[in-house]
Amino acid sequence: MKKTLLLSLLFCLALAGCSTGSPTNPTAKSVLKDDAQADILQYEGLIYQQASDLDITFTKGEKLGEIKKTTTRWLGFKNLYATQLAVGTELFSTNTQYMIAEVDGKQIPYIALIEG
What we know:
116 residues, alpha+beta, 6-stranded antiparallel sheet, two-stranded parallel ribbon, 2 helices
């Protein structure tokens, strides 16, 4: 009886330790709740944040799409929505983990916000 109780207790402890969950990537909601003025966009389910303050070198790649909507509301934030980029702004891949937005001939880097 004691052996069964001990095994059951160990099993419950092991199960509880495994159920802490895995990290999730930031959402528009989590970013905008922390900073209502954040310059973000969403592409393929990931949130990208403007990163022009970083000193990076990149090569422009293929066109990924264009911004469909500009909004600061996190509710209903979808792919190709942005908080500050204008509708029609073109997005391009690069040879790095960044993507770029082209605004008036200027290339602005955005980096994916990924947890873990």
